[in-house]
Amino acid sequence: MTVMTEMISPDSFAGLTPELVLDAVESSGMRSDGRMLALNSYENRVYQIGIEDAAPVIAKFYRPLRWSDAAIQEEHAFVRELRSHEIPVIAASQAENGDSLRHYQGFRFALFDRQSGRAPETGDRATLEWLGRFIGRIHSVGAAASYQDRPVLNIQTFGLEPRAWLLEHDFIPADLLAAYASVSQQALDGIQRCYDRAGDIQPIRLHGDCHLGNVLWLESGPQAGPHFVDFDDSRMGPGIQDLWMLLSGDRADMQRQLTDILAGYEDFFEFDSRQLYLIEALRTLRLIHYSAWLAQRWHDPAFPAAFPWFNSQRYWQDRILELREQVALMDEPPLWPV
Description:
By secondary structure, the chain is an alpha+beta fold. Helices cover 42% and strands 13% of the residues. The chain folds into two domains: 18-113, Phosphorylase Kinase, domain 1; 125-330, Transferase(Phosphotransferase), domain 1 (Orthogonal Bundle). Helix 5 packs parallel to helix 10 and helix 8 packs antiparallel against helix 10 (313-330).
């Protein structure tokens, strides 16, 4: 998720008809058999396309205005770099000229091999260690260079900017605006305290949105284990960003899960324990950012259909309560002593 400084045009994908999607895929040299299945994606438009005498491919059409061409190509290059280290990620296919970002009638798109799999079982210690090993390998490569065209995940980009956007636009009900402004400022103050306690954490290239929905698990065969997909939100940031979203349950559950993940992670990349101060801060930033992300895309017809509960009185009441809880959680001790 990336917050823009302007509202995304409501007709961003209006011209993306089934015919155009198939023609775009065929412009890459493939011959479609006419089968097309829309996959679960809101930021972009993603389809599984049947190919004659070959396996289906995944076509991702990028939301206009969100990333520059250079930023998309930078993400593609990072994923190819990971693959060159035999890390199980799904890279965009390259055309004969080496380009992985393709253009067709004003739309930008990329093609990917289809990857099957299920969500990992986080209750299994061996699975968590396995996940940790591969995230550690991703971060080892990610730390070797920096993004030039992609932003850093920090208080400014995920907190101050989205909060300011929400307060300047007519999404929060008038009778809740003062309460949201107050609690979100308290949250930002708490986030800053967390960052101050953590100190200078070196940002690295991340997956950026490493929740279980972006990890596909294969049960058997030479490629058994986790496969990491959808690096669309990849950016610079603290390594713990790719770990905390794998944690769930109460404090004891999260302590156990993180211990198991780090048992594999530290085989390949050193974990700076000061990052533990950032877990609840990053969770709070994601909550603020998510509300702005929904609001900025509300004129896209896919969003009201998919998120009917957004922008109601109850929604903003719940967000205010949620942020109050996060303010308290950010002042609690980290999962274990640093």
